[in-house]
Amino acid sequence: MNLPKTVLELMQALKDAGFEAWAVGGCVRDSVLGITPHDYDLCTSAAPEQMQQVFCKYQLVLAGVKHGTVGVVTDTGVVEITTFRTEGDYSDSRHPGWVRFVPTVQEDLARRDFTINAMAYCPGQGYADPFGGLADLKQGVLRAVGDPVRRFREDALRILRGVRFAARFHLEIEPNTWDAMRSQAEALDLLAKERIFEELSKLLLVADAQMLLKIQPILARVIPELAPAMGFCQHSPHHAFDVFTHIAYVTEGVPPEPELRFAALLHDVGKPACFTTDENGRGHFYGHAGVGARMADEILQRLKAPTALRQEVVWLIGHHMTDYPPEKKLVRRALSRHGEQRLRHLMALEIADLSGKGVVESEDGVVRLRAFLEVLEQISQQEGQMSLKTLAVKGQDLMELGYAPGPKLGEVLNELLNLVMAEELPNEKQALMHQAKQWL
Ligand code: ATP
Ligand code: MG
Questions:
Q1: Which residues have their alpha-adjacent CB atom under 5 A from ion ligand 2?
Q2: Phi, psi at 71, each rounded to 5°
Q3: N or C: which end of the chain has fewer CB within 10 A?
């Protein structure tokens, strides 16, 4: 395993003082996979006070010192170093209720959630891998450390973390681990909602449709409003799938941004409640966008999602059935009303929605939405290039017409710019001067 120079220096300083020092957790896993770790965590036999002595020349972050963690500020960022420890009682669902320092790296590794996260590395000594994490990584297996039922009961967040790691690294969840994830899903009810939201956001960014389908019982525990959608037959020639299977494909189909993934996951949550059949036995879901938006609002409030995200998701769901013809005037109007980012999000959701129906007839709709996006792109490029600087008349020209200097002049220039951008006037001096003269 390659370790950055600064990290090696910190490890050496601990060793010189007679302590053990290991790189541990995510950074070991990532580098075995050939991924550059985003940070390096260390663990050590030194107690926090001993670390403070060893690193007395460094600036330290001591916020986590009660749990054994000292942050050492280096040129390349803060390196967290934690005393070998075991822990228990996760009832506050954020930090373990108690920690106890232990003498060996092996005991420290035993508190960790999955075998792939329970490996350590020390230059000169190689890997500490008491649970077979290296073999599991090689074989693509996600396996809990120890008895999975007990481990998920201790901290149910591990269920969502496990799903996330399996999705992110394309691992098979080992059967006993998977059984325990399902059987202990009830324990998710005990977690702080913020913690669920945070983990679910990360999970949604990496999960594909197959994973979302696999974890339906877990999702239904976290968001019970989704349960009626699971297996709900749409009785419609426009849909090849049940509501939740469709949801899974749409979620996979939108770009991995939290707002979009949550909007996709919840976009049809209102469908079961709005279901009706007509005289031909065909299913309809009139009003499901509005109902779904309200439900999503409640769900995201309950999960304590950030307000900005919640509002964006609710807006997207409320508008996901809106048709936008790809005409310049209409695009421009939508743009001034909703802003570019929101419209782009909505188009991404609507495209994924059509593509996720599993029927060929949706392709025309997708072409139309892509045409809308193209017009949007043209307009935004044009607007990026167009400004008062490129307008064919200047303040001086208007003053020569008889306009008085002052704020009014700026307003007139902006008004002219708007007309040019709306393509109601060409960006030519003669035409603009003519208009300005009329206003005068
Ligand atoms: P990421 O790339 O997402 O940061 P990571 O493995 O570094 O992955 P962290 O949440 O940063 O994940 O946690 C660091 C390490 O701490 C993990 O690798 C794991 O060994 C341990 N860990 C974190 N959360 C838990 C938990 N809830 N239960 C048990 N061990 C945990
Ligand atoms: Mg990490």
A1: 26
A2: -95, 125
A3: C
Which helix (H) or strand (E) segment holds residue 123: the answer is none
Say yes or no: CB of residue 221 within 6 Å of ligand 1: no
Q: Is 155 close to ligand 1, i.e. is its CB under 6 Å away?
A: yes
Q: Tell me: the pLDDT tens digits for 81-99?
A: 999 999 887 665 456 778 8
Give the number of residues written for the chain.
Answer: 440
Q: Which of 112, 136, 177, 205 to mutate to test the pocket of ligand 1 (most atoms within 8 A of CB)?
A: 112
**Ligand 1 pocket check for 108: Cβ under 6 Å:** no
The tokens 């700026």 sit on which residue?
Answer: 410
Contact 3, 24 (CB under 8 A): no
DSSP codes, 253-307? HS-S-HHHHHHHHHTTTTHHHH-EE-TT--EE-TTHHHHHHHHHHHHHHHTT--H
User: What are the pLDDT digits (tens) for 206-242?
Assistant: 999 999 999 999 999 999 999 999 999 999 998 999 9
Q: Cβ distance 416 to 436 under 8 Å?
A: yes
CA-CA-CA-CA torsion sign (224, 230, 235, 237): positive
